[in-house]
Amino acid sequence: MYGGLDVCINCAGFISKSLVYDDTSNGTNIWRRAINVNLVAVVDGTRIATQIMRAQKKPGAILNIGSVAGLYPMTYEPIYSGTKGGVVMFTRSLAPLKRHGIRVNVLCPEFVETNMGGQVSRVLIDALGGFLKMEDIVIGAFELIEDVSKAGACLWISKRRGMVYWPTSEEEKNYLVYSSKSKRTLTKNVFPSIQTPEFFEKIVAHTLSHNFRNATRIDRVRLRLPMKPHSALVKIIYAGVNASDVNFTSGRYFSGNAKEASAHLPFDVGFEAVGIVASVGDSVRHIKVGTAVALMTFGGYAEFMLVPAKNLLPVPRPDPEVVAMLTSGLTASISLEKSGQMTSGQVVLVTAAAGGTGQFAVQLAKLAGNKVVATCGGASKAALLASLGVDRVINYQHEKIKDVLKKEFPRGADIIYESVGGEMFDLCLNALAVHGRLIVIGMISQYQAEDGWMPRNYNGLCEKILGKSQTVAGFFLVQCADLWQKHLDKLFDLYASGKLKVSLDPKQFLGVASVADAVEYLHSGRSVGKVVVCIDPAYGQTLAKL
Length: 546
Known about the structure:
By secondary structure, this protein is of the alpha/beta class. The protein has 18 helices and 20 strands. Strands 8, 10, 11, 12, 13 and 20 form a six-stranded antiparallel sheet that branches. Strands 16-15-14-17-18-19 form a six-stranded parallel sheet, with helices on both faces. The protein has a five-stranded mixed sheet with strand order 1-2-3-4-5, sandwiched between helices. Helix 11 (358-367) links the parallel strand 14 and strand 15 (371-376). Helix 1 (31-56) packs parallel to helix 2 (78-92). The chain is globular, with a radius of gyration of 27 Å.
């Protein structure tokens, strides 16, 4: 009749009023019927829908309606709980259908005030915070249908926690047969061999200045041989650009006064990169030649890096998306967990949200089941944030941040992820809720001042946070190195499963010579997403073909 199928919603379920272990019949009209309606019909509906969608070779979305009873036991109705648990696991097992353009997801709400919901004990309903609104179910359903990254996803909706995806990536690691580490162990090297160079180019700071171009130059250096026993030589494919590059070239990250900082000159620059191991020292056993790795050590703006092998972080592929997960992604992931103590059901405000790290903060906050507010400047940035699921995007080119927060979020934000500094920091502090936590991960607005980054005085700060039991926490990624691999694995797992999007700025920067242009572009405020430099364009194209 309709020539095809785009969306299928399998919504079937009823509660058997008698306990299965009290039934003395064969259960045909009682619990067997419940199994047929609650589970078998959903399986069959999914089967029919997938066959139609695959035959027409067009994308499609299937939504199976589960229940909170499929996530934790209902002792007063084990058949209902068992069938809904079957719907959950059946649906999650269909994630690979995404390869055919078909996304199957499951929605697990707590109780809605329907005829069936009315049969549930009022004591239990009250303990759960009351009935859900039908609008909550509709919103959750449309999220699973419209978000093309969701496949095999289970969305749990409750009064207590709001909308939460279950299980979390951390919970999944407790039972997955193949963890991300074992996958890397089993993956064969598919990357082309690399010839060890006699000379290579890198960016080196020769003077201290917050003007990156004036502080640095390209040096052509000879590879130091022989290699030390515990070292590794890495061919850099992509390097990430960060706002704090200018702080490093100005000497701000060295202790002591300007004269003491100058004693470190010349020094290599660039905080992060991904590449392929070209050679290893005689004592290196855990990393093999041809392994894709990430590096978070000074000197990433180079064609090759010679580093202690213990500092290498194995990754599935040396892609630009992985670069974005390093300083930017790890800062968001670790700081929200440790400094922000993020749970769910909170209001999370992210400033400069369309940048390299902001994009991760908004998505991780959403995945945890929070309401996310994000600030940005420009229509393209606002569009990106809307596509990432942000609940309220504030484009400060068209509306005042202060007015929006005061009118729409009078209680304040529970967590604020702040990277702008200056007046924005003051605004955020005033918008912080009682018991709120403000995480300071940077202050980009102050980095390019005429005399460089200068400290500010925050008069009355202690009095403000004392009055509302608030916390202002600084976060510096270098001091959490023991957590890098764990959180990098988590981010890549989310990305690989389609739960996390990585936005790269579309402007291309090719070769070591383009690094200064990339740094200046980032500080221009025009970038959307992570700014990345392809250090070796020819090799990058080879990887893309693979």
